[in-house]
Design brief:
The structure holds two protein chains of two kinds.
Chain A lengths: L1 H33 L4 H31 L2 E2 L6 H14 L6 E5 L6 E4 L7 E5 H6 L2 H16 L2 H32 L1 H7 L3 H44 L2 H13 L21 H4 L12 H9 L7 H12 L32 H15 L3 E4 L5 E4 L7 E3 L6 E3 L4
Parallel strand pairs in A: 2-4
Antiparallel strand pairs in A: 1-2, 3-4, 5-6, 7-8
Chain B lengths: L1 H57 L6 H16 L3 H22 L3 H5 L1 H36 L3 H7 L13 H4 L7
Helix pairs in contact in B: 1-2, 1-5, 2-3
Classes of the chains: A alpha+beta, B mainly alpha.
């Protein structure tokens, strides 16, 4: 496992400096197009924007991500199974800290992990995911998310994300600025100094400003896709049960719901692309996640064993052409890890009303509702701000004492 | 003069490498201990859960006294075990007893629907998984340590400072190695 992390870090640095170079180039060219000596100033401004944004993302990226998604911190009582599974995966991965567990009160099935700092990592899953998956499938999903934390993907993706954001902001400001000022300043410019070098520089700057965000975005997406495969491979190594993750992915992809709190920048952090409607028509190049059908096929193809090498073999078979997915040093990992048998019963398709009820109950639990089951079979659900000390069952009129911790 | 410096340098080098290897061995031994305590925590948790499970099930399964007795016996035996080998043996016996018990539960649909029972069952299932994962981590660490103790040159230092090879935590046979089948 450690080889994967090391190789990831090396690769991350290469890509990171590549994107950084694009940003510096962008700043320089824009500065130079404004005035001949402005190159350096533009470069410094671009760097300043980047540094400030990196600071923000380093110190509060986790909480921003969690707040944006609307996730809520939960304890063991809200969903014991989820909690247990996270603890199991913590033991399996040998992580020192127990991640915090969040539930996103939404119906679309999805999950993500944050963890710029190892000791403050967190996993978040939606209520819709919990109601759809059985234990084995949920274990697969959690293992995938914990692998992102373990492989330092979260750290890298958030920094790459801010870099991408800085580039996008700078080029947007420049493009709009030149567009609006091109009419007003044309007369002034042509009369004051007829400098041809300025015009050439302006054209170069425009070209860079248009191309830079596109190029870095493609780069970002390419890395994001590779990391998804790698997280799948690590997840299977942890759970030793590829079928669980495979069928979880199938269930997630069969849902047509969009996660309303996800954005384009946060999308790569989720287990499956949360923006299905928008992402569907775009080509493979611009998608943040590999096609789910392919991921499932690779997982289902792992018949021999579950180590990283087995995943690579299955990956090559599905893709048709060998592409080195997992760092060569990690492929020495040839421990004969055998597959485990599935242990959970299949959770078949439940009726939409039943599912809506489960999700509703879960969201109520997240919001500290008090559940009292009456002898007549009715469950009374009291909101956290219910103040009276007694409650009467609406069906059988029996009275209950309300106990709050 | 030069000869003296060379000898001195070699001596210092030797001391440094001995210290380095010794520290690495200590670190490995501590990691093994830590991994073992992880397993121990989960085994204890399982022992704590079993009375709960039995209590919940008793009301529903009046004619299964034998099954309950086997479990209780296996539990007390497992709690008394000391060495790694003993523990492995008694714990796999306990797993077997639990397995059988959970198979019998299939015949009691009322029990299977009981909320209390379901939550105890979930805790038990999770503990089984945690034991399996902790065992995996422990055996990895033991392998590292034992390799270091056997291989040259660290074996010289390991022998002179009396580092001992640790036992693997292996469960008896393949069938019992499987986590007990818990149906939901």
């Amino acid at each position: 496992m450690w080889e994967v992390i090391k190789a990831n870090q090396r690769k991350s640095w290469v890509l990171f400096s590549l994107m950084g170079t694009v940003l510096i180039l962008l700043g320089f060219v824009i500065g130079a197009s404004v005035s001949p000596e402005g190159g350096l100033i533009g470069l410094i401004i671009a760097l300043a924007i980047w540094i400030i944004m990196s600071f923000v993302s380093y110190f509060s990226g986790d909480s921003i991500m969690l707040r944006m998604s609307g996730a809520q911190l939960v304890n063991h009582n809200v969903h014991p199974q989820l909690f247990n599974i996270v603890e199991e995966m913590k033991i399996a991965s040998g992580m020192k800290h127990m991640p915090k567990v969040y539930i996103i009160p939404q119906e679309a099935p999805n999950a993500f992990a944050t963890g710029i700092h190892q000791d403050q990592c967190a996993v978040a899953v939606t209520a819709g995911l919990l109601s759809r998956l059985n234990r084995d499938e949920l274990q697969g999903v959690i293992a995938h998310e914990m692998s992102h934390i373990m492989n330092r993907d979260v750290l890298f993706m958030s920094f790459a994300g801010t870099l991408l954001g800085s580039i996008a902001i700078i080029s947007q400001v420049f493009l709009r600025g030149t567009y609006y000022s091109s009419f007003s300043s044309r007369r002034y410019r042509s009369s004051s100094r007829n400098n041809q070098g300025d015009g050439v520089m302006l054209i170069i700057a425009l070209a860079v400003a248009i191309l830079a965000p596109v190029l870095t975005q493609l780069l970002y997406f390419a890395i994001s896709r590779k990391r998804e495969y790698l997280a799948d491979a690590s997840a299977v190594r942890l759970t030793r049960y590829p079928q669980g993750l495979a069928s979880a992915l199938e269930k997630i992809s069969s849902s047509k719901l969009d996660l309303t709190t996800a954005t384009k920048i946060t999308a790569p952090l989720y287990i499956a692309n949360p923006l299905k409607q928008k992402g569907k028509k775009l080509s493979d190049l611009t998608s943040t996640h590999p096609p789910i059908s392919e991921r499932v096929k690779i997982l289902r193809g792992m018949q021999q064993g579950v180590n990283l090498n087995d995943y690579q073999v299955s990956f090559n078979k599905v893709k048709g052409q060998p592409e080195l997915l997992i760092p060569a040093t990690a492929l020495k990992d040839k421990d004969p890890l055998s597959l485990r048998q599935g242990s959970s019963k299949k959770k078949g398709p439940i009726s939409p009303t039943q599912q809506a009820r489960e999700i509703g109950d879960l969201i109520r639990r997240v919001n500290d509702f008090l559940f009292i089951s009456c002898a007549c079979g009715l469950t009374i659900k009291l909101p956290a701000n219910y103040n009276r000390s007694q409650v009467q069952c609406p069906r059988c009129q029996k009275k209950y004492h309300v106990q709050k911790e | 003069m030069i000869g003296l410096i060379v000898v001195l340098a070699l001596l210092i080098l030797a001391v440094i490498s001995v210290v380095g290897i010794y520290n690495a061995l200590v670190q490995l031994r501590n990691q093994v201990k830590n991994a073992w305590s992880q397993i121990d925590v989960q085994l204890k948790r399982r022992h704590d859960l079993i009375p709960n499970l039995v209590e919940t099930a008793k009301g529903y399964m009046k004619h299964e006294r034998e099954t309950f007795e086997t479990i209780t016996q296996a539990r007390s035996q497992a709690m008394g075990a000391q060495s790694v080998g003993d523990k492995a043996k008694s714990e796999s016996a306990l797993s077997g007893a639990l397995n059988k018990f959970l198979l019998t539960v299939e015949n009691y649909p009322d029990l299977k629907a009981n909320q209390n029972f379901l939550s105890v069952q979930e805790e038990l299932k999770s503990t089984e998984n945690k034991i399996a994962f902790a065992r995996q981590a422990y055996n990895d660490q033991v392998l590292f340590l034992n390799n270091k103790i056997q291989m040259f040159p660290s074996n010289l230092i390991a022998n002179s400072f009396n580092f001992k090879q640790e036992e693997f935590f292996e469960l008896e046979d393949e069938a019992q190695r499987e986590v007990p089948e818990v149906k939901f």
